[in-house]
Specification:
Layout lengths: L1 E6 L3 H12 L4 E5 L12 E2 L9 E2 H15 L3 E3 L2 E7 L4 E6 L4 E9 L3 E3 L15 E2 L2 H4 L7 E5 L3 H10 L5 E5 L9 H9 L3 E4 L2 E8 L3 E8 L5 E5 L2 E4 L3 E3 L28 E3 L11 H22 L1
The structure holds flavin-adenine dinucleotide.
Length: about 300
């Protein structure tokens, strides 16, 4: 039996492992793909402290993984499923996709989230070459460039406003006549002369050579198509936390894990860190901080349990 099992080996999980091991916990990590999480698909990271120049996503995560392994972290390959608590013994049984199960005295969930895709031609091909799902991360690469934001919810509106710090022009393409985001954000959007809303319109493809050069838009009422020349397309059409395997009682309406101020879930002894938890800012540095906090609180919990 382990003191702690960490599910997910992205920035939150790896940081939890580093702190957990240094606190003397006997722990194990479970990762369904290879370690590193979403950052492995990120071309360059410019906002993680400690790097003067942008660092490649895979380089940053290899360093985190190697650091965790050097300290003694063991990462097994597998997909975690149901977690069952034995209330008498205060231990958790975690089932894996291969039919086996693992036992631990505490659990940290660090499973991240996935951005919803448009699934249009060019989207995948140009991801990291003009297509982005994070203006906070990539906005600075679009200084004085023409961009489009796709979406109409709070995230799309916030990210469009953020992009105006860098881009010379931000088209805000929304499939309806009205944005879904908060009124105050809508007012800021309409007051910003760098932003041009394009309503009742969908994007049907993204084109370019080495990088994005244009998007093809289609008006939903008239079916009329037009080319929009631009350098970047930022897609904010929703995201899904990787929480499908968790019981409903742990989740809010957006399917994020509900946590208290110690990052503990509604089940005593299970903690959640990073992108999958409610109110996450979905950034590497925050995920890493969450992982450290969750590990320290798991340590305190285990001390209390004796
Ligand atoms: C394209 C892109 C660019 C980005 N750029 C930046 C940037 O420049 N700067 C920045 O700060 N942030 C950036 N982000 C956001 C950043 O990647 C996330 O905030 C961060 O990775 C969250 O870390 P995490 O550990 O919570 O989750 P993740 O990185 O998603 O890691 C979760 C891990 O859990 C695993 N997992 C999930 N479910 C299970 C299961 N049931 N069993 C076992 N394993 C499981 C997954 O395979 C994954 O490896 C970017 C995101 C994207 C998509």
């Amino acid at each position: 039996m382990k003191d702690l099992i960490i599910i997910g080996a992205g920035p939150a999980g790896l940081s939890a492992a580093i702190y957990g091991i240094r606190a003397g916990l006997d722990l194990l990590m479970i990762e369904r793909f290879s370690p590193g999480g979403q950052v492995m698909n990120t071309h360059e990271v410019e906002n993680y402290p400690g790097f003067v120049d942008p660092v490649k996503g895979w380089e940053l995560m290899s360093a985190m993984e190697n650091q965790a392994r050097r300290l003694g972290a063991e990462i097994i390959n597998g997909e975690a499923g149901a977690i069952i608590k034995d209330k008498e013994k205060n231990v958790f049984s975690i089932s894996l996709s291969n039919g086996k199960s693992l036992i631990a005295r505490s659990v940290i969930l660090a499973c991240g989230s996935a951005n919803q895709k448009l699934n249009i031609p060019g989207e995948q091909e140009f991801t990291g070459k003009g297509v982005s799902y994070c203006a906070t991360c990539d906005g600075a690469f679009f200084k004085d460039k023409v961009t489009a934001v796709i979406g109409g919810g709070n995230t799309a509106l916030e990210e469009a406003l953020f992009l105006t710090r860098f881009a010379s022009k931000v088209y805000l393409v929304h499939r309806r006549y009205e944005f879904r985001g908060e009124k105050i954000l809508q007012q800021r959007i309409l007051a910003n002369n760098k932003i041009e809303p394009i309503y009742d319109t969908i994007i049907t493809s993204i084109e370019g050579k080495e990088k994005v050069t244009k998007a093809i838009l289609k008006n939903k009422s008239t079916n009329e198509k037009k080319d929009l020349l631009l350098d970047g397309v930022f897609i904010f059409v929703g995201y899904s936390p990787n929480t499908a395997f968790l019981p409903e009682e742990l989740l809010n309406t957006r399917k994020e894990v509900i946590i208290d101020k110690n990052l503990q879930t509604k089940i005593h002894g299970i903690f959640a860190a990073g992108d999958m938890r409610e109110n996450s800012k979905r950034q590497i540095v925050m995920a890493a901080a969450d992982g450290a906090t969750a590990a320290m609180n798991a340590y305190d919990y285990l001390q209390e349990m004796g």
